[in-house]
Known about the structure:
Layout: H1 2-34, E1 39-40, E2 45-46, H2 55-59, H3 62-74, H4 78-87, H5 90-97, E3 105-109, E4 112-115, H6 130-141, E5 147-153, H7 167-172, E6 180-183, H8 189-195, H9 205-220, E7 230-238, H10 241-246, E8 254-259, E9 266-269, E10 272-273, H11 279-283, E11 294-295, H12 297-301, E12 307-311, E13 319-324, H13 332-336, E14 341-345, H14 356-362, E15 365-373, H15 374-377
Parallel strand pairs: 5-6, 5-15, 7-11, 13-14, 13-15
Antiparallel strand pairs: 1-2, 3-4, 7-8, 9-10, 9-12, 12-14
Amino acid sequence: xxxxxxxxxxxxxxxxxxxxxxxxxxxxxxxxxxxxxxxxxxxxxxxxxxxxxxxxxxxxxxxxxxxxxxxxxxxxxxxxxxxxxxxxxxxxxxxxxxxxxxxxxxxxxxxxxxxxxxxxxxxxxxxxxxxxxxxxxxxxxxxxxxxxxxxxxxxxxxxxxxxxxxxxxxxxxxxxxxxxxxxxxxxxxxxxxxxxxxxxxxxxxxxxxxxxxxxxxxxxxxxxxxxxxxxxxxxxxxxxxxxxxxxxxxxxxxxxxxxxxxxxxxxxxxxxxxxxxxxxxxxxxxxxxxxxxxxxxxxxxxxxxxxxxxxxxxxxxxxxxxxxxxxxxxxxxxxxxxxxxxxxxxxxxxxxxxxxxxxxxxxxxxxxxxxxxxxxxxxxxxxxxxx
Length: 387
């Protein structure tokens, strides 16, 4: 009897193994036919690809980690399953933000809060990272360029809505003594809501447009800026990084944007001449996507790239270098329209051996603009570049 039970268990194990093996083969076959997934839209990032095997990466654990990430990103229906899992959290957020109606911060989930019973997901004010700022200061002191500018994007990560002031900005600029500086003025929680998304850490179309105007005034004085032709509400909702971090999909927020008439120019993304982002396609309703599609900031304004070059052929104007993170994507083109050539570098993705001073000299750059918010500007990955 015991031997019979053991045989049954052994047969069951073999069946489970065979079914699992066949399922894995089917997933591999489906992924092969479909081709590798390039973008993870929910997370506004490029997808992990199957890593090449080498002994060094295997023994330090990098290969196994990259393989696990690749399986997670490339598995059949993985992104759709993530989406449906997050959707189930919608009512939970609604319930939590309506508890204890007091004007203050309330913890919604790990590291994310609501304020004043509103449905915006918020960070609490971050501490100044003196060590990171000292490294950044040392880096920029070695950069040889005629004019240096800093634009700081005030956000929930640099503000306490119970006591709004500019102490974060005031502390920050002490490390940028050789820079002309400016900042996004957020003087109330209502102003914050006008300038930022509910679900995402990026500024929205109103906040980024204000930033564009501030930057041109800082660099060019009272020069006339591009004005929106119209405000457009797309048929899509935006789904952002904070919703992903909170692991739920909550109140629907329509994606809105300004439409501009931008002068003719050429755009190069990582050396290839092409459009950056899909603003024109979405604004002209030329994207064949269901209306329940969750549009991301990156999908609309452009995914993060190591280098973008705009050539407006304004030979009477100087060249500009923008160093920044994804916040710049929404206004790169607007700023570039005021210059001859504009070079945009994301320090997270540039080549390890890029020498910034050589790059500035080779491209005859006279103006450098460094921009970001508290949750991006303190990333010491800028030191990946050489000077």
